[in-house]
Every structure is written in structure tokens, then in C-alpha cells.
Amino acid sequence: MALDKNQIAKRIAQEVKDRYFVNLGIGIPTLVANYVRHDIEVEFQSENGVLGMGPFPFEGEEDADIINAGKQTITTLPGASFFDSAFSFGMIRAQKVDLTILGAMEVSENGDIANWKIPGKMVKGMGGAMDLVASAENIIVAMMHVNKAGESKILKKCTLPLTGVGCVKKVVTELAVMEITPKGFKLLERAPGVSVEEIIKATEAELIIDGDIPEMNID
């Protein structure tokens, strides 16, 4: 059974540790705040100038003035702070963020990421993508394993314009958890009911398979 976007976020939430400062990118990463354990203290940061984001608000409880970098309404936790984007990027560039969780269109076997532009399609701008991948030491990517045409997005080499080079540490998709190693993608976990063979078939890059691959625990 392939995971849905919320289940991908739930699995990534297991990577968040006590007292971490975490930056959440646009898309699936924004859902991670909904699933972090309640017995740990985590500060979620958004590069538009928020520290202390909480889960998404319930319908009818949204405040249009409190948004994340993706212009989605958010909640804030007690003690949250707001500041300008210059201060926010100062935090990022000074490596004050412990974990960065990003979406991506492609990831290569040496840890390159492409997540900001498809040639020929208009984009508003790169946003904070370049700063995040250049400064972060721990990047986890949340993405779909294949595109709408069924083509792999886990590649030997990215085909789209790069955002960062050799920066991704781990990738979580609807099919698998993979670690970027000096020898390429190492398969760590598989989605419940998904076989190793199915993951290999959906992956353009070579996968390192070391022994039995356990199923993800997303309960």
C-alpha cells in the first residue's frame, strides 16, 4: 500500500528530535507539524518570519494574518515569535536550524535536489530554496516517488535545474525511506505491503539493498 501525503509526513515526524529547530518547506513538509510527538519540544520555523508554528488550524478558526511561506494559514504555539525575512534568513544562513524538510521534483543518487523550476513554466521566484539547501546540514526530502506519468523522480542524475548539490541526507516517498550514501540511495524501509521489487521498478537510480528491508512504522 503506497502512503498518502499525510502518512509521508507522519513518517518524517519520527525524525524530529527533542529541542530541534525545524524548517518546513512548502507542500508535504508543512503537514509534519501535525504529527510530531507531544512529549518533545520542537520549534518550527518558516522563512517568511515565524518561529513556533503549530498544526494547521481547524476550519473556521483560521487567521488570515498568520501564514507560512506557502501562504497557508497556520497556528502558533505559546511563546511564538514573528520577525522580518532578513532576520529569518539570518537564522538559516547561520545554521541555527537543526533539520530542514523540503519537497522536491527530483533527487539524484549523490544528494542533488531540484525543487524550484520546471523550464518553460512561469515561477514567481526561488524563494528561500537556495539559502536552505546551501546552509542546512540535515535535509530530509518529502516527495512522491514517481510523477503523474509514472516516471521515477529518484534519479541517477537530476534533469531539472538544480537547487542544491550533494545536500540531501534522506528521502521519504509514498513507497520507501532511502538514505543518501557515498555509493548512492540505500533502501532503509518500505511502505506497508510494498515489495522491494516494486520499489526497484519505480526507481531509475540504483538502490543499495542490504539484507531484509523492514516495513515503515507509521502508527
Automatic annotation (TrEMBL):
InterPro entries: 3-oxoacid_CoA-transf_B, CoA_trans_fam_I, CoA_transf_AS, NagB/RpiA_transferase-like. Keywords: Transferase. It holds the Pfam family CoA_trans. It comes from the Bacteria. Belongs to the 3-oxoacid CoA-transferase subunit B family. This is 3-oxoacid CoA-transferase subunit B.
